[in-house]
Amino acid sequence: MFSSLLIANRGEIACRVIRTAKRMGIRTIAVYSYADRDAVHVKLADEAVHIGGSAARDSYLSIEKIVAACKATGAEAVHPGYGFLSENAAFPAALEKEGIIFVGPPVKAIEAMGDKITSKKLAAAAGVSTVPGHMGLIDDAEHAVAISRTIGYPVMIKASAGGGGKGMRIAHTDAEAREGFERSKSEAASSFGDDRIFIEKFVTEPRHIEIQLIGDQHGNVLWLNERECSIQRRNQKVIEEAPSPFLDAATRKAMGEQSVALAKAVGYTSAGTVEFIVDKDRNFYFLEMNTRLQVEHPVTELITGLDLVELMFLAAAGEKLPLTQADVGINGWAIESRIYAEDPFRNFLPSTGRLTRYRPPAENLVQAPFIRNDTGVSEGSEIATYYDPMIAKLCTWAPTRTEAIDAMEVALDEFELEGVGNNIPFLSAVMGQERFRSGRLTTGYIAEEFPNGFSGVAPDAESLTHLAALACTSAFALDKRLYPMTPEPRAVIIGDQRWDFSVHADGIEYWLTQPDGKKLLVESGWKPGMSLCIARVDGRLHHVKLDRVTGGFRLRWRGADLVAKVLLPHVADLMPVMPVKLPPDLSKFLLCPMPGQIVRIDVAEGDIVEDGQTLAIVEAMKMENVLKAEKRAKISKVRVKPGSVLAVDEVILEFEAV
Amino acid sequence: MQKIIAALDQRRTDARLGGGQKRIDAQHGKGKLTARERLEVLLDPGSFEEYDMFVTHRAVDFGMNENIIPGDGVVTGWGTINGRITYVFSQDFTVFGGSLSETHAQKICKIMDLAVQNGAPVIGLNDSGGARIQEGVAALGGYAEVFWRNVQASGAIPQISVVMGPTAGGAVYSPAMTDFIYMVKDTSYMYVTGPDVVKTVTSEIVTHEELGGASTHTKVSSVADAAFDNDIETLLEVRRLFDFLPLSAADKPPAVAVNDTIDRAESSLDTLIPDSANKPYDMREVILKIADEGDFLEIQKDHAGNILVGFIRLNGSTVGVVANQPLVLAGCLDINSSKKAARFIRFCDAFSIPILTLVDVPGFLPGVAQEYGGIIKHGAKLLFAYAEATVPKVTVITRKAYGGAYDVMASKHIRADVNYAWPTAEIAVMGAKGATEILYRSELGDKDKIAKRTADYEARFANPFVAAERGFIDDVIMPHGTRRRVARAFETLKNKKAVIPLKKHGNIPL
Predict the structure, then answer these.
(1) Quick check: A63 contacting B, CB < 8 Å?
(2) What counts of helices (H) and strands (E) characterise chain B?
(3) What is the pLDDT of residues B250-262, one digit of tens each?
(4) CA angle, corner A339, sides to A338 and A343, nearest 5?
(5) CB-based contacts of A516: which residues, under 8 Å, 6+ apart?
(6) CA distance B141 to B131
(7) What contacts A447, CB < 8 A, 6 or more positions away?
(8) Is the N or C terminus of chain B more exposed, i.e. has fewer CB atoms within 10 Å?
(9) Burial class (CB in 10 A: 0-12, 13-18, 19+), B274
């Protein structure tokens, strides 16, 4: 085994690799860009080398700089993590020249799998199931029909040069194939100037399921079961799990064995992943092979009990894998939620800034359910635009899928993250959906379940009552501290619902009596100043984020974001007198989407603007963000000047309908 | 006896109806509560004791002798907020439009006199059309009696005004002389002359809201300290403010058994200051992380955002915070921010509330507008207020403390008691670039030379140690330990005694 390792990466994966290396007694060397000078991975490593500017091409993508860092520190081996140089064949080649071990597959394997067409051909040759299709030239519509029949309907007809759905058709019959071919061809010609068309099997209700492999330099390759990564948003994985709720043992075995066959065909070593698309009849088709450690590898580790990074080290050092296929099993269920710096309430707009609060749930790998949180940030870290917006990978493990999901719901509720918009409410919303819980997943899940975007979750009646009860006891604790004689009746108002309680407090126990005599028992350890309320209401455990607002609390729980007013009943009786204030019609305004400075305003009062026309440019975090018109309108007022520094949601322009 | 009691009950019932159900409904229709309902929201339930319920006006002109309503348009008395006494008056818009008569004024004066005598605050809920025209000079005299008492009470007891409806003409000056003015958004306004008069005199066309609404007074004029969505929210926020304040100048600020320890470390503050001196950060984060339970009641949030002022608790006791805000105008001092902070400091000093100052100030804002506007005089207000204040003063310099602004922001020299600096502090006459451009004017053509001079200046002065070597800074502290160090510093100052020279009063540059 090598004695020193340089991690040519950043963020959570660098931290993840360092952890295993440290456990194995390997000296760790981090590299960092300017933006990462205070990053967690830098502090975690035994040594750290500054390799250049914040932009990845000046640092993490520079082979030259990383090789120089290896030489300067005497690193014997390099782990590339994922992304950056991990699948760039030139990188291991450069390391090899310097006699440095690359913790990953051989150059040839990377090259073979790096090309989509080559990898598909290799896969087919190795007996791996690939999507049936026709890649050659198609003469005319009748030829297209013939091909479609051979493949079997439904088929997808698409432009070779295409992308973004343009020039793409799905055909279920000969007639549709004929028409689709003609239409796609002409669209392709006009859109891309290239009318070449190809036809392949259209996979209905597709799922993304992948097989984890590990191989050593002695010809051993094992499959470590699958992960299902169907919950994706714009091809970005959001939630992953292992095993898949869909596969049966036979399919799993077939996929595993085919994957191993492919790996062996290219002389693969180290960790790798073969991605498949699986249709509703459990037909699976090869997509591609990733020749690196995947982001979502922790779920595999949680169900197999293996440390993939450790196995990669062993393989890289030329040692034999310490296990055989027979040793690999599936133990329980693991779920991973990727926590991204993106605001689900604003159409997942990337969010940047400072993590003013970052308190993930405590990790626990001792007693089920397990909690694992892979992260590269800490409170006070800056989420910059230079790199991936992932903040953390939160994983739970439990003996069953339902228990793992339940644990994830709690872990997400406990996760305190402020200062940067994040997708925790969205992840919570998915965890709470019946369809997710029953495992009916497809890669279209998010588009199907949230066709109009995400606007928060409405809790069911019982949960809402429990939230009202928690708000009530918390407000009561605040009042009682200032005024021990505070009266017992309270009214809680959430939206247009009202609850009346009489509060009797005894230590952490609160008995809430409702007017009909029904009693709720709240056991709450919440004390003023706490931002997380952990309490049982009638025995049901809740973890709710609380923020004080005038006359009550903002509550965040399971994707819901509500305000609960806790008032004395006679004050609550007066609430109906208060004027209803309608939120301003925001479609009439151009709001600043992020805190930043106005660089330019391209329109003047009185201008008529068209859909998509540039209105203004806001600079935030050194990035220029172009704000465009969403529909035709007249500019009725320009409210700010170039150079103005704006907060989020400040008005830049006012529109008038035309 | 039974009959007599019934008669009293009847009289009380009549008085409670104010201007009658129709007018009460009209008040509700506008989204506003009645005078008595407001007191029910403001005060602890059952705590209100009313005085002068049976007072009536004595006017006879214009048919007033036939239009008599007990209470005369204002409800007065006292009650408690979380058990602590306050005197209150609440103008009743349903009675003569809440207009102020001689007797209406006398009722207010009575409770103000009691408040001063007994050392308890006065909270006034204003909802009045102005002087009662039918009474003429008697009403004007009434106003002046209230004004005089506002001034006598100023600094003796906290006075809080809540503007909850129209407040025009003379009526604005009583709130103006109190310590805090809260307004209700959309349903309250205050101005010296209304839109009609404005139009006649200056031809300017404005709405009530534009001229004197909550938004105008919290953002532009700074007349109001805060505004909230409706009557209930506003009154609940008044309760929250009240909880921070002592009852009188003779009282100590209230202490709360907080659920927080003074040695709570905040490691994230160690990464708060950006590398570039030109990059801003949010000073509010520092305040929230120092404060007990992260609770910060901000005053004048929407005005002069380059300085933050408000109340926090440290170790359970109220502390006033004044902090430059680098997010707005780089945190510089200008006319508005100087006035805002100066007034807040004087309030704290009057009521024994210690002052924590957080400094990141590049200097005073340059410009013709500032000079013509009298930045010298207004900046002097802040300097005066800090120098005059004898309450415990603790200062933490987080980054820049340049030039005269360093002196002003509670420096050692104007008698701050404990002065700390973060290692990121730069205490100098000015920024390195500006300094070298003056010191080495002749070398300005030579870029390399100037760069070296700038680097030299930075190395020498862009740190807290030059000041620390002289004892102007008592210690250079780690950001993460700020809460602990500041809270402990205030503990040592609990029994601070300061002697001021014999005088009637100082002469702050108004």
Answers:
(1) no
(2) 19, 17
(3) 999 999 999 999 9
(4) 125
(5) none
(6) 10
(7) none
(8) N
(9) middle
Q: Are A569 and B45 in contact (CB under 8 A)?
A: no
Stated as kind and residue range, the H or E segment containing B184 is strand B180-184
User: Cα A310 from chain centroid?
Assistant: 25
End-to-end CA, chain A: 72
| Secondary structure class of B285 (helix, strand, coil) | helix
What's the whole-number mean pLDDT along residues A152-175?
A: 79
Among B98, B130, B170, B310, the active-site one is: B170
DSSP B363-393: -BPPSHHHHHTTHHHHHHHHHHHHHH--S-E
Of the candidates B405, B425, B432, B468, the residue annotated as catalytic is: B405
* B230 contacts A578? CB cut-off 8 A: yes
User: From CA B420, how far away is CA B484, in angstroms rounded?
Assistant: 12
Q: Give the per-residue SS3 of A196-258.
A: CEEEEECCCCCEEEEEEEEECCCCCEEEEEEEEEEEEECCEEEEEEECCCCCCHHHHHHHHHH
ω before A583 within 30° of 0 (cis)? Answer: no
Alpha-carbon distances, residue A355 vs A352, A422, A648, B289, B312 (angstroms): 9, 11, 16, 13, 22
Three-class SS state of B252: coil
Mutate to test the interface with B, among A502, A571, A644 (most CBs of B within 10 A): A571
Q: Which of A401, A329, A407, A328 is nearest to A365 (CA)?
A: A407
Pairing of strands A333-340, A236-242: antiparallel
pLDDT at A163 over 60: no
pTM of the complete model: 0.91
B253 contacts: CB under 8 Å, gap ≥ 6 = B244, B245, B246, B317, B318, B351, B352, B353
Closest chain B C-alpha to A515 CA, distance in angstroms: 20
Please write the tens of the pLDDT for every residue from B418-460.
999 999 999 998 888 888 888 888 888 888 888 898 888 888 8
B46 in catalytic set: no
Q: Which two tokens stand for residue A418?
A: 């402020």
Whether A605 has a pLDDT exceeding 60, the answer reads: yes
Backbone torsions φ then ψ of A512, nearest 5 degrees: -105, 115
Report how far apart, in Å, the C-alpha atoms of A260 and of each of A127, A211, B278, B446 are.
11, 9, 56, 67
CATH number of B267-425+463-492: 3.90.226.10
Task: Give yes or no for B281 touching A (CB within 8 A).
Answer: yes
- Tens digits of residue pLDDT in A364-403: 999 999 999 999 999 999 988 788 889 999 999 999 999 9
d(CA A459, CA A474): 19
Check residue B216 and report its DSSP letter. I
Kindly state whether A622 is in contact with chain B, defined as any CB-CB distance less than 8 angstroms.
no
Which chain B positions have a beta carbon within 8 Å of A530's beta carbon? 259
In three-state secondary structure terms, A277 is strand
Mean pLDDT calculated for residue range A299-314: 97
Of the candidates B167, B173, B320, the residue with the CA atom closest to the CA atom of residue B246: B320
Closest CA to B98 of B36, B145, B147: B36
- Where in the sequence of chain B do the CATH 3.90.226.10 domains occur? 2-242, 267-425+463-492
Q: Please say whether the beta carbons of A479 and A551 come within 8 A.
A: no
Planar angle of CA B275, B278, B281, nearest 5 degrees? 70
- Over residues B22-52, the pLDDT tens digits come to 999 999 999 999 999 999 999 999 999 999 9
Query: Is there a contact between B183 and B224 (Cβ–Cβ < 8 Å)?
Result: yes
Cβ–Cβ below 8 Å for A568 and B232: no
The CATH number of B2-242 is which of 3.90.226.10, 3.30.70.1050, 3.40.50.300, 3.40.50.2300? 3.90.226.10
CA pair distance A318, B448, nearest whole angstrom: 54
